[in-house]
Amino acid sequence: xxxxxxxxxxxxxxxxxxxxxxxxxxxxxxxxxxxxxxxxxxxxxxxxxxxxxxxxxxxxxxxxxxxxxxxxxxxxxxxxxxxxxxxxxxxxxxxxxxxxxxxxxxxxxxxxxxxxxxxxxxxxxxxxxxxxxxxxxxxxxxxxxxxxxxxxxxxxxxxxxxxxxxxxxxxxxxxxxxxxxxxxxxxxxxxxxxxxxxxxxxxxxxxxxxxxxxxxxxxxxxxxxxxxxxxxxxxxxxxxxxxxxxxxxxxxxxxxxxxxxxxxxxxxxxxxxxxxxxxxxxxx
Length: 284
What we know:
This protein has helices at residues 30-42, 60-65, 70-77, 90-93, 113-116, 120-135, 147-159, 189-210, 215-226, and strands at residues 2-4, 19-24, 45-50, 84-86, 139-143, 165-169, 235-243, 257-267, 270-280. By secondary structure, the chain is an alpha/beta fold. The chain has two domains: 2-169, Rossmann fold (3-Layer(aba) Sandwich); 182-280, Pantoate--beta-alanine Ligase, Chain: A,domain 2 (2-Layer Sandwich), CATH 3.30.1300.10.
């Protein structure tokens, strides 16, 4: 496995082969490894990028405390048959400082996570587009847990005619339902236990959808679970919404078809997001 810190060190791609890229910020967990395994299934060559992108952080303290574990990450990746890890420095990615030209997420960047983290998705799309250019993949794999990110990346690829297929891989959860996240390491034992209310709310909403409930009732079911947390809870909810999986906008009350139930909260000092995909208007 090649560890490259510059684009020039990345391996060339043989004619007729298929390359997949998995973009991460490191601190890898089983959710990331599921992306890598899927990439290995569908491609001849797999590149994993590890880069903590300053453009997508709104708070300097959050950027500073994001875990950086490159050596441990590489130890996890090598047995999976990864061909190259691209771990550039900030200077390598943004020579001369922050880029003058960036990508705008448009309306997708102004709702939900974008509303709570202004500019976040502009930073995400800017680094994703640059990494796509540098790694030259046929397919890029992202975790479905970051639903709005997947929506934004797919919109960018579609609107800017980037010749890459985007594949989302299902969220990986601990046995108790908590979605895996690199940020979970910051949770205290109490905070982690309280964070389970997020997945419980999503599962309740999904159950309402399976029973044929309309979007407003599905959302109300999830919010009712969140409302059960005690007054002294460490969980401070930002939103729970039903959104269109193509636009990230809230679905209409009479929406039929796929929808994403997305939730976000701060648990202590740690921000967590999660989601489930449901089908509205079809009782199962």
